[in-house]
């Protein structure tokens, strides 16, 4: 069964101010614009997603909500998973492996370096380090999400060359 995984880095954030927790970093005005453009790009290329997973960190949360609006995806249905915050590739795979069978088009909004490594490994392609607000789409063939550990897919498309 064909699955599409859209792997997105959160949009641009302000540098942390003294004593600000990393978890609370906010999007810049340009970051909000990046997320809006990314949502539009996803809608133009893929129409919709049926599952949206995001790190609960403020920057990823805001990116996911902005993209969801462009996709007409109910914000209440976004799954904020603590395991996605600054996750390594193995942690990201564990979250994806737990997805329900009906999830066919999935958007994952998280952090580097884990998401870039995940995109490279799943696509079998050298992808440059994902810049803020950028997304790559990987087509995968497997029956159940737990098979993602052994899957290698095909890079379908990306918006990494678009201007921010």
List descriptors.
164 residues, alpha/beta, 6-stranded mixed β-sheet
Describe this structure in words.
The protein has helices at residues 29-46, 58-71, 89-97, 114-123; strands at residues 2-9, 51-54, 79-80, 105-110, 135-141, 154-158. A 6-stranded mixed β-sheet has the order 3-2-4-1-5-6, with helices on both faces. By secondary structure, the protein is of the alpha/beta class. The N and C termini lie far apart (34 Å). The model has no long low-confidence stretch (mean pLDDT 94). α2 links the parallel β2 and β3. The longest helix has 18 residues, at 29-46.
Enumerate the strands of the largest sheet in spatial order, edge to edge or round the barrel: 3-2-4-1-5-6
Mean pLDDT score: 94
SSE ordering: EHEHEHEHEE
How would a crystallographer describe the biggest sheet? 6 strands, mixed
Distance between the termini: 34 Å
How many β-strands, per DSSP?
A: 6
Structural class: alpha/beta
Shape: globular
In percent terms, what proportion of residues is strand?
15-25%
Helical stretch tally: 4
Q: Roughly what percent helix?
A: 25-40%
* Rg result: 14 Å
Uncertain stretches of 5 or more adjacent residues: none
């Amino acid at each position: 069964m064909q699955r599409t995984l859209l792997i997105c880095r959160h949009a641009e954030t302000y540098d942390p101010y003294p004593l600000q927790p990393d978890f609370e970093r906010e999007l810049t005005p340009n970051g909000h614009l990046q997320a809006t453009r990314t949502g539009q790009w996803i809608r133009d290329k893929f129409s919709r997603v049926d599952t949206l997973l995001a790190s609960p960190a403020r920057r990823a949360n805001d990116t996911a909500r902005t993209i969801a609006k462009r996709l007409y995806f109910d914000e209440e249905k976004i799954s904020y998973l603590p395991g996605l915050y600054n996750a390594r590739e193995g942690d990201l795979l564990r979250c994806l492996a737990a997805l329900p069978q009906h999830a066919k088009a999935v958007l994952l909004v998280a952090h580097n370096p884990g998401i870039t490594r995940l995109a490279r490994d799943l696509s079998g392609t050298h992808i440059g380090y994902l810049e803020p607000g950028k997304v790559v789409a990987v087509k995968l063939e497997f029956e159940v999400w737990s098979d993602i550990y052994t899957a290698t897919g095909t890079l379908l498309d990306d918006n990494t060359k678009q201007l921010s």
